[in-house]
Amino acid sequence: MKVKIPHAYVLIFYIIIALGLASYFIPAGNFNRQVDLDTGIEYVVPGTYRSVEASPVSPFKLFQAIPDGMMQAGDIVIFVLIIGGSFGIINATGTINKLISAVVRKNIGKETRVIPMVMIVFSLAGAILGMAEEVLPLYPIFITLALALGFDSITGVAMILLGTGSGFVAGFLNPFTTGIAQGIADIPLFSGMLFRLLCYLVIVSTTILYVYYYSIKIKKNPSLSPTFEQDKSRKRSFSTDGLPSLTKRDLIVVSIMLFFLGILVYGVFKKDFYVIEISTIFLIMGILCGIAGNLSSGRIALEFIKGSSNLVYGALIIGLAKGIMVVMEYGNIMDTFIFVLSKGIEGLPPMFSAVAMFVAQSVINLFISSGSGQAAVSMPIMTALADLSGVTRQTSVLAFQFGDGFSNVISPTSGYFMAALAIGRIQWKKWAKWMFPLFAIWCILGGVLLIIATIIEYGPY
Is this prediction's pTM over 0.90? Predict the structure, then answer.
């Protein structure tokens, strides 16, 4: 019997209802919390859990938790919409696609260079811009390119999917996962970047090597490809004539993006920029890129709306997911859950606690594939567990990134991933069989990196 997974909104609403009902049966309780006067961060105080008077959630309060959660998460919701709108403007200039085309044109006929070069470009798009769905229109180009170079459609899909995916995992400047998770964890946005850059290098280089050696094997013996039969009927010629070229306007757009990304890095590290300041930077960058890209004021407004609307799903899921925390707070059962979970990892070394968080996030990602939505659902609890288990909050954010990112390119509940396979005409079971060794390597590397993060007390906080 085929199990149908409900829509993410419906699933979260079911969770809210279940927790509201649970407030009638689960004992209410609270931890003491203290505020660090130097940082302003509120921490759970270990060993202070106590039972309190039960406060079951009424049906009206159950529904009230949804708008209450959306209002409490308002700053993060607006943050996502502004960044989505800004990226919408930048995408409308066509500069990003032309940059990728320039890389392809420069390396055509140099098979040994095409795969790493293309994957590095896409990995940066994933790590900095959080791109995933946005590159779906490029899959046909790179599948055709891969076939023309003597590879297969799996290689063509992997160059984009695993390129963006491996960069997305580390996400050293990804506002949609790292930024939101750090904001919820109440630690400085984009802090801990050096260790994330190390994670980026380890994961991306491993991924490139996996795809590269597979592609060489297929070039020598195409019949070894899982998609050999279907690739026979596909176009195996590729011309660079149809690829767009970079213009002076595009170079100006790129210069504006690099300038403002530099301001972003400087502001985060030197001026303690947070959600409002970062949103402002992206807004200005998007508008200036639109002007430089010769978009009219009306077109800039329309593309901003279009870009924002593309992220309404993820933005609203943040507010809806916040309702889960709100209904638990109404019923005074959130700390009870934290207490029970903390007992489950009590006595474990912090490094094993960090790995357990990674595993838990991977399971959650099967049901909530939106990275920002998953952060909203899980990070409040994971942050408290980190405080209780001796794991830094920064490490708990890294565990979230690994749990969300690794399974995104193998989970059948990941929408953009399944869309990529559909474009490549690759069956999920064929991809899963091909991908599983790399997925296992990723999980091992993720566990090792989390253990290292725990040993070095990866911070701040």
Answer: no
